[in-house]
TrEMBL record:
Descriptive protein name: Pseudouridine synthase
NCBIfam families: pseudouridine synthase (TIGR00093)
Record family assignment: Belongs to the pseudouridine synthase RsuA family.
Gene Ontology MF annotations: RNA binding; rRNA pseudouridine synthase activity
Keyword annotations from UniProtKB, A to Z: Isomerase, RNA-binding
Origin species: Cellulosilyticum lentocellum (strain ATCC 49066 / DSM 5427 / NCIMB 11756 / RHM5)
GO cellular component: cytosol
Any single GO BP term: enzyme-directed rRNA pseudouridine synthesis
Top-level lineage group: Bacteria
CDD domains, per database record: PseudoU_synth_RsuA_like (cd02870), S4 (cd00165)
SUPFAM superfamilies named in the record: Alpha-L RNA-binding motif, Pseudouridine synthase
EC number(s) recorded for this UniProt protein: 5.4.99.-
Limits of the RNA-binding S4 domain: 1-59
Length: 240
């Protein structure tokens, strides 16, 4: 197994972060510091991170959280802001978020100790439907809705076509349900701003077939076996 995958599977961090830790010289195998990505490790090898032995966990944990606005989707925040892990009281296993939700965005966030799965779900080649409930300032025109559906230019690149449904409208606001297939930074907010309508509120409702459902804001629950199996079936897992 590749060293970075081994570390991720041990719950140290996501695959990408583990690659950084290796390059920084923080990982050793059998007493030797390793800074070469892709180094193969065997079951009987002694792997250390920050001078502490790390071993494969026998069982990973998987959760969904209904993230409130006002929390950072990181393990630690350099500005000392509250993180999503502050909401995961009672979880003893080391876990980390799968992808990100903006500070002011709420809704469905997955967290797990399974670094390999996290990597597979956040891989740039990975495309899965993500549905959001969006409240916009202003009454959105049909022309703007059509632009969102066909794709708009953000960060010098056009977005893929999106599914856009009008939930309700009044003179001051429009509520939309938007489904996208990419995972670009602040994508929904940038798409709506590109057609002239700032986002007032943004909430993620689902990732693929995983639904937020009736989970209350700030609460979390363990994923069912069926949900975990589904995520593994859609993740891009590299060969070891």
């Amino acid at each position: 197994m590749r060293l970075q995958k081994y570390l991720a599977s041990c719950g140290i961090a996501s695959r990408r972060k583990c690659e950084e830790l290796i390059l920084e010289g923080k990982v050793s195998v059998n007493g030797q510091i390793i800074q070469t990505l892709g180094t193969q490790v065997e079951e009987d090898d002694e792997v250390y991170y920050n001078h502490k032995r790390v071993q494969l966990e026998e069982k990973h944990v998987y959760y969904m959280l209904n993230k409130p606005a006002g929390y950072v989707t990181t393990v630690q925040d350099e500005k000392q802001r509250a993180t999503v892990l502050d909401l995961m009281k009672g979880v003893k296993t080391r876990i980390f978020p799968v992808g990100r939700l903006d500070y002011n965005t709420s809704g469905l966030l997955l967290l797990t100790s399974d670094g390999a799965l996290t990597y597979g779900l956040t891989h740039p080649k990975h495309h899965v439907n993500k549905t959001y409930e969006v409240k916009l300032s202003g009454k959105v025109t049909e022309r703007s809705l059509d632009m969102l559906r066909k794709g708009v230019m953000i960060d010098h690149r056009k977005t893929y076509p999106a599914e856009v449904e009008v939930v309700k409208q009044n003179a001051k606001h429009t509520w939309l349900k938007i489904t996208i297939h990419e995972g670009r930074n602040r994508q929904i907010r940038k798409m709506c701003e590109a057609v002239g309508y700032p986002v007032v509120q943004l909430k993620r409702l689902s990732v693929g077939s995983i639904q937020l459902g009736s989970l209350k804001v700030g609460e979390y629950r363990a994923l069912t076996k069926e949900e975990v199996d589904y995520l593994k079936s859609i993740a891009i897992i590299e060969e070891v």
